[in-house]
Amino acid sequence: MTNNITVIGTRGIPNVLGGVETHCQHLYPEIHKQFHNNICVIARSPYVDYKISSYQGVTTKSVWAPKKKSLEAIIHSTLASFSTLFDKSDIVHVHAIGPGLVVPLLRILGKKVIFTHHGPDYDRQKWGDFAKKILLLGEKLAVTYASEIIVISEVINDIIKDKYHRHDAHLIYNGVKLPKPLAQDKIDNALFEFSLTANNYFVAVGRLVEEKGFHNLITAYEKAQLSIPLVIMGDTDHPTPYSEKLKEQASKVDGVIMTGFLKGEQLQALFSQAKVFVMPSYHEGLPIALLEAMSYSLPTIVSDIPANLEVKLSSESYFPVGNIEELTSKLSQHAEMNSEKVNYSHYLDYYDWEKIAKQTMSVYNQTALEKS
């Protein structure tokens, strides 16, 4: 029905750190594979080293953006919006509420706009009062003026129903790809690099930002006085006082290993061989890292925020968000257990990228039929 789709709101693909980025990296190649659409993902220049390239059939184009967190999203999204005047796109798909500020502009430019709400980013601790107001405005403009809305969780759907009385959003979950087995030598090499033993370390994954709760995790790990390592995989886009303080905190606790940003087979190797996955987040949209941990059949310890509860794990997997004592207890319990792999196949059926691509394409086709 519709052939030309432009994507705005991601830093870029492939292998760029971030939940929206991972979402786009999996979604658009799958849509292209199934439906052969012409899809262009517009990336931000500080995160990619191409001008125009491609990834698994998806065109990727770099547009300049300042590498300054307060200006990056809005300046890039504005420039990207104007670039759609020349790309013959039928539909522009905007991801996240920061870039959502440009949805009215895109409508003025004559575009049909799909907006995916990935979560209330204004709840994140890293933003000051002014930035939070801008993000709230982005949410309001995007939800009000988008042709169609996609939400990745029922929690987000409830937000836009309650705040903006928009009841026609399409609930389409985030997804996860089931991992392919790695050769044993690649697993061994990755474990050796960080002095790890298979099934004998905790793992946490994410950006080094305050809402991920890694400071609580390190504190709880230190209090538990465990003999198995804690591996934190991730970094931050821009060095911040919080990220520097977190790294300093980690350096003073024996057993904490900060790997930095890993990707590809190295990331898969360390993820797949962990004993337990831990997510102490204060804020998530729908956590892709948790879904990935489930794809590796890892036991989990996760905070009881709404986005994590929506996955509907067993009650033993949850602890009260921010409660260091409870987290310490959970870590101690799992350290002493012979943690066995968990069968999450029933859960993961909801998060299948093939199904998600079909659902998203259905929204595109519906939008293409609508009047501008």
UniProtKB/TrEMBL annotation:
Residues 18-177 form the Glycosyltransferase subfamily 4-like N-terminal domain. Keywords: Transferase. Gene3D superfamilies: Glycogen Phosphorylase B. Residues 199-338 form the Glycosyl transferase family domain. Pfam families: Glyco_transf_4, Glycos_transf_1. PANTHER family: SULFOQUINOVOSYL TRANSFERASE SQD2. This is Glycosyl transferase.
